[in-house]
Amino acid sequence: MREIIKQILNQAVLAPSGDNSQPWKFKLKDNGVFVYIVFGADDSFYNFEERGSYIGIGALIENIKILAGVTGFETAIKLFPEENISGLIAEVTFLPSDKRDSNQAKQIPLRVTNRKPYLSKSIPPEDLNILLNVPRENNIKKYFILEDPVAIKALSSTLNLNERLILENKKIHDGLFKYIRWSKTDEDKTKNGMYIKTLELAPLQEKAFKLFRNWQIINFLNHFGVSKMVSKDSAKLYASTPAYGIIATAGLSEDQLILAGRFFQRVWLTGTGLGLSMQPVAAILFLAQRINGGDTSEFLPKQMDLIKNAENKIRQIFSLSSDEIPIMIFRLGYADPPSAGSIKRSPVIIGNI
Predict the structure, then answer these.
(1) At the top level of its lineage, which domain of life is listed (predicted)?
(2) Residue 172: left if φ>0, alpha if ψ -120 to 50, beta else—which one?
């Protein structure tokens, strides 16, 4: 049984996580697995209070459930089973079952972040209907797919603020460039982070990006408007995307974020099965959460105003009520296959029970 569990985990770790940080580890038991968070594995400035990590672990747990179903098991999932054990997120118990569903399991190794320009082709209504009817967790307050070109253009001038802040805020800048892997050799060594080719930069853009990793250089170039020019180019990419999805929850507690991560993974796998490309673009939401949580020390007043205004604009575009908390926005459409994917580590198993 433990060998079966290991095989399941080998596939389950093909889950999304912030900067491909893979903030999880495991302890095996005879009929299941304990899932732990690795605190600090994703120490980027976006990951306020490990919220991005909890979303990623939710996606991982959903993968475990799906893969167990293919193997002839259903799962009993208990979140935070032992409050006194630091980092223990979930206990997943495998129970024999006659049901076998391999549809979404086939999509797990195919799911990938695609940052390429998307085609202008609209998504057929029948496929949108399938996406919108993905089973939801009870805490999902709003799940909506935006297709209105005028609203998307307005959204693009909000999302692109992230690219500007990367080049204007040293904390964000240093945190991002720490996770860039500049060659396959670097990526093979660490088996985490973002390989430069996954960013889908044109040759000249890639050369400039390598230059921008030096804070002194980009800080000097910003006197000539470089950060704003980069942001303007990003807005064009965002504006050309035919659809955007948003997921909003009832709260930001750990269990709410895990459930949201499970739901987001179901949406992503469903989209993958329909031949659609996706890219999370939730950076502004995470920065807004940091400010709303009172951690403002690394922001200039002007930057805080820009982020708060962007958050308010997102709320207006998606017609969010005060009790709907946005935790994920994603690009959605058709695109050529990505130039590269992210390498995943083998499951880190810390022991057995």
Answers:
(1) Bacteria
(2) alpha
CA geometry: angle 111, 184, 268, nearest 5 deg: 10
Phi, psi angle pair for 30, to nearest 5°: -60, -40
In the numeric block, the tokens 């179903």 are attached to 69
What fold characterizes domain 2-110+342-352?
A: NADH Oxidase (3.40.109)
Alpha carbon distances (Å) from 109 to 47, 135, 265: 25, 21, 12
pLDDT reported for residue 83:
85
For 100-123, what is each residue's pLDDT tens digit? 777 899 999 999 999 999 999 999
Q: How far apart are CA 249 and CA 328, in angstroms?
A: 9
Token representation of residue 175: 């945190």
Q: What is the CA radius of gyration of the chain?
A: 20
Q: Would you list the domain boundaries of the chain?
A: 2-110+342-352, 125-333
Over residues 44-103, the pLDDT tens digits come to: 999 999 999 999 999 999 999 999 999 999 999 999 999 899 999 999 999 998 877 778
Do strands 180-181 and 194-195 pair parallel, antiparallel, or not at all (unpaired)? Answer: parallel
pLDDT digits (tens, 9 = 90+) for 11-36: 999 999 999 999 999 999 999 999 99
Q: Which CATH number fits domain 125-333: 3.40.109.10, 3.30.450.40, 3.40.50.720, 3.30.930.10?
A: 3.40.109.10
Answer for the pair 55, 260: CB distance below 8 angstroms, yes or no.
Answer: yes
